[in-house]
Amino acid sequence: MSALTLEMLDGHNIERLENIVSLVAEEATGQFGLLPGHEALITALQPGLVRCRLSDGSWRHLACSGGVLLCRNNLVQLVSARFLSAEHHEQLTAQLENRLQRERRDRTTDQQARVELERALIKRLREWSEARRS
Where is the ATP synthase F1 complex delta/epsilon subunit N-terminal domain (predicted)? Predict the structure, then answer.
């Protein structure tokens, strides 16, 4: 029996998953499935979940921020800004919650840095303006 191979690529990682007997993802028109031997396909994925059933009967769950899916010759390539992968959906949920918390912390830190930079620029502009008047 032939199987699909999935390559997941983002800006930081490449993850390869082999022995996939079916894959379900979602595009703008709805969910679709891929089986080994599928015709060549390229589509834009919606942000969400991708499910893969492996030849041993287990499942692999993926979350992606949208992206492009290319399928040809039983190779499926998923290119996304970011993705997460887990054996169980509970693990994926935990990973997503951790990522969300980290992004919130990063966003807060970035906002604080911007405010400090703006204050420093305003202070410097005032100093520069006062020096020009003198």
Answer: 20-79
Helix, strand, coil abundance in the chain, percent, nearest 5: 35, 45, 25
Q: Is 54 left (phi over 0), alpha (psi -120 to 50) or beta?
A: beta
100: part of which helix (H) or strand (E)? helix 89-133
- What structural domains and CATH numbers belong to the chain? 4-87 (2.60.15.10)
Which one-letter DSSP state was computed for residue 56?
T
Instruction: Please name the residue that has the structure tokens 């991708």.
Output: 50
C-alpha span between 93 and 86 (Å, rounded): 9
**Contact (CB, 8 A) for 87 and 61:** yes
The answer to whether residues 18 and 5 touch, using CB atoms and an 8 Å cutoff, is yes
Instruction: Give the SS3 label for residue 37.
Output: coil
Low-confidence residues in the chain, pLDDT < 70: 1
Entry field: residues in the chain = 134
pTM, whole model, 2 decimals?
A: 0.69
